[in-house]
């Protein structure tokens, strides 16, 4: 009976340590300062604001400060996109999970205004520093001049047809085998997948 109680105690301790509020939360809280510094160093050339991340229990609060040090409530579309991509990059770098050399950007550039959209090459150059392949899913044909290769995907009945820009004969793709195509199918009748 004593041995069973000791095993139960060990099991309860291990369960607590391995839970979301255990080692994972401890490591995150210990690393948050380094993560915050890395975010700011990556973002510095692109946005003139400082990001501050703090732990409150099991939640991370992200505060944004302008150059005067005043807390601000919102970011522009480009600034939000840069912060989102930077967080993905850093989490990918510190994660112990297998690393991917491919980044999917799904409709994120729709937040860009005309000025930022015209300078989208800066965004693509930034992302290419961290990923060898970037797949952009968008309905915005304005980016065609800024990318290496495009595929037009058109849904006809239950089938998605993929065309390249040169208009060659489409190849049929069974939707159930492609997460990307399935996601596009749910969003719209026609979209583009762009390899930047």
Short description:
The protein has helices at 2-18, 23-43, 77-94, 114-118, 120-128, 179-187, and strands at 50-56, 59-65, 71-72, 102-106, 133-138, 149-156, 159-164, 171-173, 190-195.
Q: What does the model show?
A:
This protein is an alpha+beta fold. It is 40% helix and 26% strand. The protein is built from 6 helices and 9 strands, in the order ααβββαβααββββαβ. It has helices at 2-18, 23-43, 77-94, 114-118, 120-128, 179-187, and strands at 50-56, 59-65, 71-72, 102-106, 133-138, 149-156, 159-164, 171-173, 190-195. The strands form 2 sheets. A 6-stranded mixed beta sheet has the order 4-5-9-6-7-8, with helices on both faces. A hairpin with a 6-residue loop joins β7 (159-164) and β8. The chain is extended.
Topology:
Blueprint: H1 2-18, H2 23-43, E1 50-56, E2 59-65, E3 71-72, H3 77-94, E4 102-106, H4 114-118, H5 120-128, E5 133-138, E6 149-156, E7 159-164, E8 171-173, H6 179-187, E9 190-195
Parallel strand pairs: 4-5
Antiparallel strand pairs: 1-2, 2-3, 5-9, 6-7, 6-9, 7-8
Helix pairs in contact: 2-3
């Amino acid at each position: 009976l004593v041995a069973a109680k000791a095993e139960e105690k060990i099991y309860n301790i291990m369960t607590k340590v391995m839970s979301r509020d255990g080692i994972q939360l401890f490591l995150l809280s210990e690393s948050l300062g380094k993560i915050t510094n890395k975010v700011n160093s990556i973002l510095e050339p692109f946005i003139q604001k400082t990001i501050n991340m703090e732990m409150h229990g099991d939640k991370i609060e992200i505060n944004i400060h302008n150059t005067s040090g005043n807390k601000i409530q919102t970011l522009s579309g480009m600034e939000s996109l840069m912060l989102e991509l930077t967080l993905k990059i850093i989490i990918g770098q510190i994660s112990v999970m297998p690393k991917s050399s491919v980044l999917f950007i799904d409709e994120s550039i729709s937040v860009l205004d005309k000025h930022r959209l015209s300078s989208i090459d800066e965004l693509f150059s930034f992302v290419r520093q961290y990923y060898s392949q970037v797949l952009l899913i968008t309905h915005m044909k304005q980016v065609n001049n800024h990318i290496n290769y495009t595929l037009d995907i058109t849904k006809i009945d239950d089938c998605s047809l993929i065309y390249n820009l040169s208009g060659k004969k489409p190849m049929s793709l069974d939707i159930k085998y492609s997460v990307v195509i399935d996601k596009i199918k749910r969003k719209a009748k026609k979209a583009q997948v762009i390899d930047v």
